[in-house]
Design a protein that fits this description.
The chain has 321 residues and is α/β, with parallel strands linked by helices. It has two domains: 170 residues, Thiolase/Chalcone synthase (Peroxisomal Thiolase, Chain A, domain 1, 3-Layer(aba) Sandwich), CATH 3.40.47; 143 residues, Peroxisomal Thiolase, Chain A, domain 1 (3-Layer(aba) Sandwich), CATH 3.40.47.10. 33% of the residues lie in helices and 26% in strands. β4, α4 and β5 form a beta-alpha-beta unit. The protein is globular and about 55 Å long.
């Protein structure tokens, strides 16, 4: 069978790390308050000259290096972001140009925190049908640019960054490496729970992020557990078969609650929310690259990716390394 095999990964963070103590100097909050409610200890904030496209390009270059594949051999770039450099053209085309692989397919997808999974599912479909052979799948955000820094309930939660993987279509056996199954969902009924209060066709402005955290938490635990169970049932595996879960890094309490609901031990969860905070579409590939580079995730491991974000959108993807 043809599967999309993960050949390499990479990540990039802005140069400036901002601790909870740093934030407490400008916002009515404290390190204790943030850690207790979210598990976050610091985040990275983009500075002058650091944009979604520059972070995405850095992550993509590292992924290409890890894969041992030249940029010229990439024929598809799918970039997930809710904070593009411009309304148009797609930020993926700026990354494409920076990498020097002009002419290949390049476009953005917008599914907020689930964006990387939507991008991964899209690229996987295109590789398996022969539309492309090798793809860069990127999640990149500069969420700091849409935060209301006077709203302590939201501004402490988010950070900036980028993560990328290289996918290659390969013929493999049933128990071989590659993306096994992906399940994606959306429900536009809950727009008012997590959104940005601006846009080109409504206000003509970028707007700021707004969230009702308690309601989002409740939906996240239910929806993530459901889609994980759905993906396992569809692929014929059980929770015991999973070596690693790479979740969206929104909140340590959501990670704990979802793991308990599925009976997954904490040792199987890749956690980076304490260091990166919520980087939206970048959080899953950032966490995955961390697990790859520190040696936890190895060849042959069964890895489950999962995320939920504004929309609501949510999804899961099961892959063999």
């Amino acid at each position: 069978m043809i599967r999309s095999v993960i050949r390499g990964s990479g990540s990039a963070l802005p140069g400036k790390a901002v601790t909870n103590a740093d934030l407490a100097q400008r916002v009515d909050t404290s390190d204790e308050w943030i850690v207790e409610r979210t598990g976050i200890k610091q985040r990275y904030i983009a500075g002058e000259g650091e944009t979604t496209s520059t972070l995405a390009t850095q992550a993509a270059n590292k992924a290409l290096e890890a894969a041992g594949i030249a940029a010229a051999d990439i024929d598809l770039i799918v970039l997930a972001t809710a904070t593009p450099d411009q309304t148009f053209p797609a930020t993926a085309t700026q990354v494409q140009h920076a990498l020097g692989c002009n002419g290949c397919i390049a476009f953005d997808v917008a599914a907020v925190c689930s964006g990387f999974l939507y991008a991964l599912g899209t690229a996987d479909s295109m590789l398996r049908t022969g539309m492309a052979k090798r793809a860069l799948v990127i999640g990149a955000e500069t969420f700091s640019r849409i935060l209301d820094w006077e709203d302590r309930t939201t501004c402490v939660l988010f950070g900036d960054g980028a993560g990328a993987i290289v996918l290659e279509a390969q013929e493999v056996d049933a128990d071989g490496p590659g993306v096994i199954d992906t399940k994606l969902h959306a429900d536009g009924e809950h727009n008012e729970l997590l959104y940005v209060d601006g846009g080109p066709s409504t206000t003509g402005t970028v707007g700021k992020l707004r969230m009702r955290g308690r309601e989002v938490f409740r939906h996240a635990v239910v929806n993530l557990a459901s889609v994980l169970e759905e993906t396992l049932a569809s692929s014929g595996f059980t929770a015991d078969d999973i070596d690693w879960v790479v979740p969206h890094q929104a909140n340590a309490r959501i990670l704990d609650a979802t793991a308990r609901k599925l009976g997954l031990p904490a040792e199987k969860i890749i956690v980076t929310v304490d260091q990166h905070a919520n980087t939206s579409a970048a959080s899953v590939p950032l966490a995955f690259d961390a697990g790859i580079r520190d040696g936890r995730i190895k060849a042959g491991d069964l890895v489950m990716f999962e995320a939920m974000g504004g929309g609501f959108t949510w999804g899961a993807c099961l892959a063999r390394m």
